[in-house]
Each structure stands twice: as structure tokens, then as C-alpha cells.
Amino acid sequence: MSEAAIRITGMNKYYGRFQVLRDINLDVGSGERIVICGPSGSGKSTLIRCINRLEEHQQGRIDVLGTELNDDIGNIDHIRRDVGMVFQHFNLFPHLTVLENCTLAPTLARKIPAEEAEATAMTYLERVRIPEQASKFPGQLSGGQQQRVAIARALCMKPKILLFDEPTSALDPEMIKEVLDVMVELASDGMTMLCVTHEMGFARQVADRVIFMDKGEIVEQGRPTELFDNPKNERTRTFLSQVL
Ligand code: ADP
Ligand code: MG
After folding, report:
1. How far apart are CA 188 and CA 186, in angstroms?
2. How many Å lie between the centroid of ligand 1 and the Cα of residue 167?
């Protein structure tokens, strides 16, 4: 495996006294594409939110692109510059246009001149196939279009790692494919991706590795064919029999 983009060792996380993640050990190679699946409440969102410090871990260590995630605000800022996130409910700014959603962070956080940020945004809006929506507001778009804006917005920060938390779970069935198609394209461009999803077709098509979580633990992991066709753990088998 090439140089680790993310290295998590012996990580435990608690919400109050409730232990939500248990002894997580995970190395993600640069350019690796990982799908995380598992029952609701198993800690999938919490795990990926720890990677850009939307949640804090209590024990163990997380290194992202060679920088340790700890209380050092400088480290956190540094890591967040390189790690983009796409959420289940899009989280677009409703009072800003599509284009403004895409240029806000680059102009404010990165001090990119407005014209340059707009040109970059249009490039990515073309890439997710909605340049014609640039002057609309999120509320005027379909769910699938909003999620593609969210992906374009993340790409405008030129991230090295993209985290996806169930990006298609809130979409009507007919819109799932248009979002997955964009994600497949990103995957083939060599983006390091961690994606929480139950879209097994997507996992088979792009994942280098599928990780199955249950009750805060990584229970089993492997290539999609290994994990889906020949799961070794009883909990993995039970889960897969419900979603496949
Ligand atoms: P998943 O994404 O796999 O559904 P989550 O990471 O969202 O799982 O949640 C894992 C567990 O942690 C669940 O039991 C959930 O209720 C709990 N949990 C999630 N967020 C919080 C929070 N902010 N405070 C307390 N408990 C939480
Ligand atoms: Mg979740």
C-alpha cells in the first residue's frame, strides 16, 4: 500500500459514559477507496466525523496526511483544508446561490480572488453536470441536484480526502444514480475516499476495501467480493442478508 493518508490506531471514543467506538485501527492508503457499512447506530458517522474533528476522540491516535489530530487548532485547520465532507442532508447554505455555495469557503478561508473561485466553481459544476443551475438557490433544486452541488462545493476546496456520510440515503430512488455516477467518476480519478453507504453496487464497482462495523467495532473488512460473497463473521452475514 502507498503512503497512509489516514492512520488510526487504538482509537476509542465516548459520548459521555457511552463508548461509541472501540479500539479502531485503520490505515487508509493514498488514493484508496473505502466503503463503510453496518447497522444503524454502529458508529459509522462518528468514525468518519472523527477524521475531520467534527467529533473528538478520547483515546488512541489519528493521523491525517502526516499530521496528528489533537487539541492543536493549527493541526485541525491544516487537516480540514485537505479533507472534504459530503453529508446525507446536503447541508447547503439555503440563502446562497449554488455558485455562492461553491465560492464561499475558497474566498473566505483560502483568500482566493472571487473571479478565480467562480471559474473553479463552474469547472466543478460542469463536472457534476449542473452548470446551468449556478444562479439558482438550493431550494429550487431536486435532492439529486443539491447533493451534486454539495460534492462540487467540497471539490472547490481541492481536498486530498473526501468523506461521504450516506450521500444517497435521503434521495428518491430515481436520483440515486446521478449522484453515484459522479462519485464513481471521482473514484476513478484517484481521490482518496471514505464512503458510508449501503449501496452495494457502488461498493462492488469502486471500493478497494469494504469495512463492516457493528456496535462501535470494525468487525470485518476485505475486498468487496470477499466481504459480500464470503463473509466470515456471523454479524456481517446477518447484516448482509438484510440489505442485499
Ligand atoms: P451510525 O452512523 O452507524 O448510524 P452513529 O455514529 O450516528 O452511528 O451513532 C453511534 C451511536 O452513538 C448511536 O448509539 C447513537 O445514538 C450515538 N450517538 C451519536 N451521536 C451522538 C451524540 N452527539 N451524543 C450522544 N450519542 C450519540
Ligand atoms: Mg450515520
Report:
1. 5
2. 17
Q: Is 40 in the pocket of ligand 1 (CB under 6 A)?
A: yes
Q: What is the pLDDT of residues 171-194, one digit of tens each?
A: 999 999 999 999 999 999 999 999
The protein residue whose alpha carbon is closest to atom 13 in ligand 1 is 41
Closest CA to 38 of 232, 220, 206, 178: 220
Select from 74, 243, 76, 88 the least CA-distant residue to 170.
88
pLDDT confidence of residue 1: 44
Grid coordinates belonging to 203: 461498493
Ligand 1 atom at shortest distance from the alpha carbon of 15: 25
